[in-house]
Amino acid sequence: MLSIFILLALVAFAGWRLLGSAPLTFLATIASGANLNQSNDRINGLVLGIDRRTLLTSSQHGLLTDTIMLVSYDIKSKSLAVVSLPRDLWVPYSDLPPNLTNASGKINSVYATCLNTVLKPACLKNYGSSAEYTAKTLEKILGLPIHYYAVIGFDSFVRMVDILGGVDIEVRNGFDDYMYPIPGLEDVLPEENRYEHLHFEPGWQHFNGQTALKFARSRKALGPEGSDFARSTRQQQVVAALKSKALSLETLTSPDRLKSLYSEFSDALETNVSLGEALEIAKIFSQVSFTNYYVMNGSSPDDPQLLYDIIDENLYDGQYVLVPKAGDYSALQDFFAHIFEE
């Protein structure tokens, strides 16, 4: 989902083109830079992916974040770290007095908490938005400031890929998923009508937006592609393909494509990144010397092994959750504090 920040830069570029700025003026703006927020020579961003296509029931009171990524840039080494946080991680919520204090839950429901009818006024008063509330909640458990956030719905992601003309991705392992959920049919009976069958052949494929989303989101594939690690790897493939297409000369020199991007996404992204900051972020991406990816799910090869999974009907409301091995978040905070050290 690094593509969200790339999209921000593209939308900024499109805006400048539509406003009539000459290419030299645009390049000069990037060169001059904006004063990006930072702490200890690091810039941290939170990326949230949300399925806005289907409203959840009133008991769930909102939209769950299906993708949660922390992106951290080290200014001195020009290195980037991307950490995928598991949606089942159990976390303490930031308080929303007087109705929510000392509460806990899965990390993927933090954003939705602020959309609850009872809690929303306190959330807006104290945090301003669901995204800001989510960022502040994560700051406490990760032990580092989150300077920027960006939230994108999967419907917007689909349209972004289609506007760019699709993406080319190598399917490294073909797979079948017989339980991919169909939006809007979550509660229909019989239960088998809630799902569609996905089939991907190995080799290079050209995906439109819907197919790219399904490739990235599939969680119930048969065999090794059904693991969280495989899913995260596929998401990284989609990000790389989208980045390549978005920053291609074909896109940057197409007024129609840029106009469509600007029209579609100037109001679709929920973010605290300004126009000038988006341009500077684009400059940063062009200078990144190294990117390290981490998937925290308790089992994948690149997992720092700070979490473990648990299912106990007497704990955590009987849900499947991931919790820190240390018993608190100190080891997690230490990992993020030293993520750029070898």
Structural features:
342 residues; alpha+beta; Aminopeptidase; two-stranded antiparallel ribbon
Helix content: 25-40%
Over all CA atoms, what is the radius of gyration? Answer: 20 Å
Q: What is the H-and-E element order?
A: HHEEEEEHHHEHEEEEHHHHEHEEEH
Q: Please work out how many helical segments DSSP would assign.
A: 12
By CATH, the topology is Aminopeptidase
Largest sheet: 6 strands, mixed
Unreliable sequence segments: 19-33, 56-62
C-alpha end-to-end distance: 25 Å
* Percent of residues in β-strands: 15-25%
**How would you state the average pLDDT, rounded?**
82
Give the overall silhouette: globular
Give the CATH class. Answer: Alpha Beta
Strand order of the largest sheet: 11-6-1-2-3-12
Q: Which second-level CATH architecture applies? A: 3-Layer(aba) Sandwich
Tally of discrete structural domains = 1
Helix/strand-derived class?
alpha+beta
Tell me how many strands there are: 14
What is the CATH homology-level superfamily?
A: LCP protein
SSE map:
Elements lengths: L1 H17 L4 H10 L9 E9 L14 E10 L4 E6 L5 E3 L11 E3 L3 H4 L6 H7 L3 H13 L5 E6 H10 L3 E5 L3 E7 L13 E6 L2 E5 L1 H9 L10 H19 L2 H4 L2 H11 L4 E2 L3 H13 L2 E6 L11 E5 L8 E5 L5 H8 L5
Parallel strand pairs: 1-6, 3-12
Antiparallel strand pairs: 1-2, 2-3, 4-5, 6-11, 7-10, 8-9, 13-14
Helix pairs in contact: 1-8, 1-10, 1-11, 6-7, 6-10, 7-8
Short description:
The protein has 342 residues and is α+β, with helices and mostly antiparallel strands. 37% of the residues lie in helices and 23% in strands. The chain has helices spanning 2-18, 23-32, 110-113, 120-126, 130-142, 154-163, 209-217, 228-246, 249-252, 255-265, 275-287, 330-337, and strands at 42-50, 65-74, 79-84, 90-92, 104-106, 148-153, 167-171, 175-181, 195-200, 203-207, 270-271, 290-295, 307-311, 320-324.
